[in-house]
C-alpha cells in the first residue's frame, strides 16, 4: 500500500479519506496538539506491525491509543480508578496520557506485551475530527523515525517517513510541541513516567502523592515507558548538553567552541535567547530556542530548533540546559537531556 505518501489538507473530504485509509489498515500521520502522530487502527494487528516497521520502532516500545472521549477509553481497560474520571474532566481533551489495566480486546502488539494500556483524548481539532470520522481507537506514536526528534510539522514527518506511510494530514505546526505527560494509574501511588504537556504541578492538585519516575533510567530497565529511554529524540549530529550555573556553563561552552574549532570540527549552538545574548557574538551557527520568560514558546519550538541545527550537518552541537524546572520547563529539560549524546555537568565554582 505504501510507496507514495499523500499529503492531505484538513478539509472534510481529506478527513473522510484519511479515516477510510485508517479503517482499512493504512498508516496516516496527523497533527495533535503535542506532536504529529502516526496513526493506525488500534485493533488491526497487521497494521500495527506495519507501523512498527515504518518507524523502525522496537517492539518493546508501547503505543498510546487515542480515543474521542472517556467512554471510549473505558472500553480499552478492565478498571478505571475513580481518579481517572476526575483527571479526564480536568485534562481531556489534552496532553495527558493515562496508563490503565489493559482490556483483553487491546492487542498485545499495541502495548508491547504489557498488561497495561496507555490512552489519551487529544485536543487538536484535526485529531478529533479524524477520530470521529474513523470511529475506531487510533494507536499513534510520534510520526518520526525511532529515536529521532519528534515531528511538530508535516515537513518533519515527510523528512523521516516519506514513502514509508500512506498519508500525512498537514495541519500546520503543533501548539504544545512536546509529547503528552504519561501518568501511570496502575501503580500506588500514581507515577509520572514521562513529563510532558500537562505539568506535574497541575497533576499534583488532583494527585497529592504523585511520584516522578527516575529521570535518568538506563536503557535496559525502561520497559515500563520507553519514552524514558535515556537516549531518545536525538539529532543525527552528536550533541553535548551543558548544565550548571549560567556563568560557569557559558565559560565552558566558549572554551569548547574554541577547542573544537581548533581541532577542525564544525560546531553549532542551541540555547535560549537570554543565554545567547549573554554569550555575545559567536563565530558559529546559533539557533535560538526562544525566551526563558516563555516556556510554552520554547516547548513549541524545541524539536524544530534541534532539527534545524541537525540540518546544518555540523560535527557537533553544543546546547545549554534550560535554567528553570517548573511547569513545561520540566518536559523541555527532559527532552534536551535525552537528545544529548554527551552530558557535561559543570560544578558550582
Ligand atoms: P510516543 O508516542 O512515540 O512518544 O511513544 C508513546 C510512549 O508512551 C511510549 O514510548 C511510552 O513512553 C508511553 N507508553 C505507551 N504505552 C505505555 C504503557 N502501557 N505503559 C507505560 N508507558 C506507555
Ligand atoms: Mg516518539
SSE layout:
Blueprint: E1 6-8, H1 12-23, E2 28-31, E3 36-41, H2 45-55, E4 64-66, H3 70-74, H4 82-91, E5 96-101, E6 116-120, H5 125-134, E7 138-139, H6 154-161, E8 167-169, E9 181-184, E10 191-194, H7 200-204, E11 211-212, E12 239-243, H8 246-262, E13 267-271, H9 273-279, E14 286-288, H10 295-311, E15 316-320, H11 329-339, E16 342-345
Parallel strand pairs: 1-8, 2-8, 4-6, 5-9, 10-11, 12-15, 12-16, 13-14, 13-15
Antiparallel strand pairs: 2-3, 3-7, 4-7, 5-6, 9-10
Helix pairs in contact: 1-5
The structure holds adenosine monophosphate and magnesium ion.
Explain what the structure shows.
The chain is an alpha/beta fold and 349 residues long. The chain folds into 2 domains: 6-212, DHBP synthase, CATH 3.90.870; 239-345, Threonylcarbamoyl-AMP synthase, C-terminal domain (Rossmann fold, 3-Layer(aba) Sandwich). It contains 11 helices and 16 strands. The chain has an 11-stranded mixed β-sheet with strand order 1-8-2-3-7-4-6-5-9-10-11, sandwiched between helices. It has a 5-stranded parallel β-sheet with strand order 14-13-15-12-16, sandwiched between helices. It starts with 5 loop residues before the first strand and ends with a strand. The chain binds adenosine monophosphate and magnesium ion. Adenosine monophosphate binds at residues 61-64, 99, 111, 114, 116-118, 141-142, 179, 182, 193-194, 224-227.
Amino acid at each position: 500500500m505504501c510507496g507514495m505518501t499523500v499529503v492531505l489538507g484538513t478539509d472534510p473530504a481529506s478527513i473522510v479519506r484519511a479515516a477510510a485509509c485508517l479503517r482499512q489498515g493504512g498508516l496516516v500521520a496527523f497533527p495533535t496538539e503535542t506532536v504529529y502522530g502516526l496513526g493506525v487502527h488500534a485493533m488491526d494487528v497487521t497494521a500495527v506491525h506495519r507501523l512498527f516497521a515504518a518507524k523502525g520502532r522496537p517492539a518493546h516500545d508501547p503505543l498510546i491509543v487515542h480515543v474521542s472521549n472517556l467512554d471510549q477509553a473505558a472500553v480499552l481497560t478492565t478498571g478505571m480508578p475513580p481518579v481517572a474520571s476526575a483527571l479526564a474532566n480536568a485534562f481531556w481533551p489534552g496532553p495527558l496520557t493515562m496508563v490503565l489495566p489493559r482490556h483483553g480486546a487491546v492487542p498485545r502488539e499495541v502495548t508491547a506485551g504489557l498488561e497495561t494500556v496507555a490512552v489519551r483524548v487529544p485536543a487538536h481539532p484535526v485529531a478529533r475530527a479524524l477520530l470521529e470520522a474513523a470511529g475506531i481507537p487510533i494507536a499513534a506514536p510520534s510520526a518520526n523515525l525511532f529515536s529521532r526528534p519528534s515531528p511538530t510539522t508535516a515537513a518533519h514527518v515527510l523528512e523521516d517517513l516519506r514513502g514509508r506511510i500512506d498519508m500525512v494530514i498537514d495541519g500546520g505546526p503543533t501548539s504544545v510541541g512536546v509529547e503528552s505527560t504519561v501518568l501511570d494509574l496502575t501503580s500506588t501511588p500514581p507515577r509520572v513516567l514521562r513529563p510532558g504537556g500537562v505539568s506535574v504541578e497541575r497533576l499534583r492538585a488532583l494527585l497529592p502523592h504523585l511520584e516522578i519516575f527516575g529521570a535518568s533510567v538506563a536503557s535496559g530497565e525502561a520497559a515500563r515507558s520507553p519514552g524514558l529511554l535515556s537516549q531518545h529524540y536525538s539529532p543525527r549530529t552528536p550533541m553535548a548538553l551543558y548544565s550548571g550555573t549560567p556563568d560557569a556553563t557559558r565559560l565552558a561552552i566558549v572554551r569548547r567552541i574554541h577547542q573544537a574549532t581548533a581541532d577542525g570540527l564544525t560546531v553549532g549552538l542551541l540555547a535560549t535567547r537570554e543565554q545567547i545574548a549573554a554569550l555575545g557574538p559567536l563565530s558559529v551557527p546559533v539557533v535560538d530556542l526562544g525566551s526563558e520568560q516563555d516556556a510554552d514558546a520554547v516547548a513549541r519550538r524545541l524539536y524544530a530548533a534541534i532539527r534545524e541545527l541537525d540540518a546544518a550537518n555540523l560535527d557537533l552541537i553544543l546546547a545549554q540546559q534550560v535554567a528553570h524546572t517548573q511547569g513545561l520547563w520540566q518536559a523541555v529539560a527532559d527532552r534536551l537531556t535525552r537528545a544529548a549524546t554527551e552530558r557535561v555537568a559543570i560544578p558550582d565554582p
